[in-house]
Amino acid sequence: METDKTDLVLRSNQLLDRLVEWRRDFHRFPELSFQEKRTSEKIAGILESFQTFEIEKNVGGYGIIATLSHGEGPVIGIRADMDALPITETTDAPWTSQHPGVMHACGHDAHMAILLGIAQLLAEDAKAGRFQGTIKLIFQPAEESCDAEGKTGAIKMLESGRLQHLEAVLSLHMCPWRKSGEIQWNDGPSMANNDEFHMRIQGSGGHAGYPQQVKDPIWMATCVLQALYSLNGRKVNPLDVGTISVGQVHAGEANNVIPSTVDIKGTIRSYKDDVRDVLCQGIHQVADVVTALGGEYSLGIHRGEPSLINDPEINYIIKEAASGLSMFEEPFGMGSEDFSYFTRKIPGAMFFLGCGLEKERSLHQSDFDIDEHSLPIGVRVLLKSAYLLLERGGVHSK
């Protein structure tokens, strides 16, 4: 098998102009979760032009699986997400979004371009007999949002049954706090469990001048909020990662009327599943304060993406594939990523690919942009990792 690193570096770099063209096209025409019709058609057209892939369309929505097999061997997946965010872009780039209120502010445009670059090199290598085994390129819809059933694109693709033979799966994420030529990796839990809660406190409203005649839900809410924030430091081991954040508090419509209800909404983030359970249980205990104060409550907790668990053996291979780059070992933060559904079922790992500009553009911000010289680096690290997994017969720690 011919997978010389220097060769892949050269061939990936030669793709730069095409990678940039693809990435900017996706950026101009972003589409929200479960609406990626034009994006999917564009990807399918490019894949079909290589005349080597078995292409499955409309998997889990507008998802695509492109399979290339060359002889017996492991089955390795490489995944990129496709959807954009409901954000109005404020960059002045010539390739700025043409869809008002929708923007690729999380780098998914780059992820797709990188996976298409991998497809081109993979097609060339298949024709030259340079690898043995099967590689599946997974273009996944709806990473940023879920449907009415609470399912993201990752869940739907896994439920399709078309990925059941995967023995390992790889992915990357653009990283604006690292420069091009740098990657960030981490073994084990690396991004957070992401759960949401909605507590409604029910009291009885009335005239603000006669508070003794009402059951004031805002007063109850002040007690609840203090107790919620104390959970971080009193329920969770200080050596573990876990946090509760309140993002919305809604009550009342007039300054001289005590309302009947208060709505409190927020998120619960953690790395370990036992910490997740402790924080969810703690919120239920806090809610009981409302009853003690004379009110009533309803509480709903929606369990979202699980924490991202990176397989150490696959990370070892990624680091070998990234030889020559600057590498940083550190968790990726308290954000969430539905690639975690893959790594809970299949040995897998995601690394963060440095793409930072001189002035950092944060993820999910209206001015987000990347250093496009990072694109060929993503191509060669992911493809080299897949080839190394094929050579070594897959993952032995599974």
Number of strands: 16
The CATH superfamily label of the largest domain reads: Zn peptidases
Q: What gap, in angstroms, lies between the N and C termini?
A: 24 Å
Secondary structural class: alpha/beta
Rg estimate, integer Å: 24 Å
Any idea of the CATH class of the largest domain?
Alpha Beta
Largest sheet entry: 8 strands, mixed
Overall body shape:
elongated
The portion of residues forming beta strands comes to 25-35%
Strand order of the largest sheet: 1-2-4-3-5-16-6-15
Briefly note the CATH topology name of the largest domain.
Answer: Aminopeptidase
Spans of 5+ residues with little confidence (pLDDT < 50)?
none
The helical percent reads 25-40%
Listing every helix as H and every strand as E from the N terminus to the C terminus, the arrangement reads HHHEEEHEHEEEEEHEEEHEEHEHEH
Mean pLDDT level: 96
Question: What CATH architecture of the largest domain do you see?
Answer: 3-Layer(aba) Sandwich
What's the structural domain tally?
Answer: 2
Domain Peptidase M20 dimerisation: 196-287
Cofactor: Mn(2+)
Keywords: Hydrolase, Manganese, Metal-binding
GO molecular function, one term: hydrolase activity
Structure description:
There is one protein chain. By secondary structure, the protein is α/β, with parallel strands linked by helices. The chain has 2 domains: 271 residues, Zn peptidases (Aminopeptidase), CATH 3.40.630; 111 residues, 2-Layer Sandwich (Alpha-Beta Plaits). The protein contains 10 helices and 16 strands. The protein has an 8-stranded mixed β-sheet with strand order 1-2-4-3-5-16-6-15, sandwiched between helices. It has a 4-stranded antiparallel β-sheet with strand order 10-12-8-13, covered by helices on one side. Strands 7-14 form a two-stranded antiparallel sheet. The mean pLDDT is 96. One of its GO terms (molecular function) is metal ion binding.
